[in-house]
Design goal:
about 160 residues, mainly alpha, Serine Threonine Protein Phosphatase 5, Tetratricopeptide repeat, 7 helices, about 0% strand
């Protein structure tokens, strides 16, 4: 359930839920009007409202999910070619944009942590790894990334 609302602000979740309730109420009113052979014109005017109320958070969620996928792909490209400045700048912008959204899924924190580790943002990456493990302690990949981030840098004595 957390991934359904992952990346959505509270007002977007409220819009979605209230839009769904309004849509159901209008649907029941429509069925009632049809059964009792009443005019449905008055109800038909209100149907765009719940559609917009549900659609806005849905679009926000789709953009958030695309942003997470974009981060994962760009991080992979940058890991293969660390000198690609265009990919680095693109990844930094994408991470900054996604970080502004509320994140409730451990896998999303992990994707951001991987990207931050590749960008050299060790402390931020560790914070996101810890958040991912707090949400889902069974994320083996997060535990491995934490160990990698906590290991002393190569060439430095402990």
């Amino acid at each position: 359930m957390t991934t359904l609302f992952d990346g959505l602000h509270g007002y977007e979740i409220a819009l979605f839920v209230l839009g769904a309730i309004l849509f159901l109420a209008l649907t029941f009113g429509l069925v009632y009007s049809i059964i009792n052979k009443r005019s449905i014109a008055a109800l038909a005017v209100f149907f765009p409202f719940p559609i917009i109320m549900i659609g806005f958070p849905a679009v926000s969620k789709i953009r958030f999910d695309r942003g997470v996928i974009e981060i994962e792909k760009t991080a992979e490209v940058l890991a293969q070619n660390p000198t690609d400045t265009q990919a680095r700048e693109h990844l930094e912008r994408a991470v900054a944009e996604i970080e502004q959204r509320p994140i409730t899924a451990g896998t999303t924190h992990l994707a951001i942590a991987r990207a931050q580790a590749i960008l050299g943002q060790r402390e931020k990456a560790l914070a996101n790894v810890h958040s991912a493990l707090r949400i889902n302690p069974n994320l083996a990949e997060a535990a491995r990334l934490r160990e990698t981030l906590l290991a002393p840098p190569a060439g430095r004595p402990q």
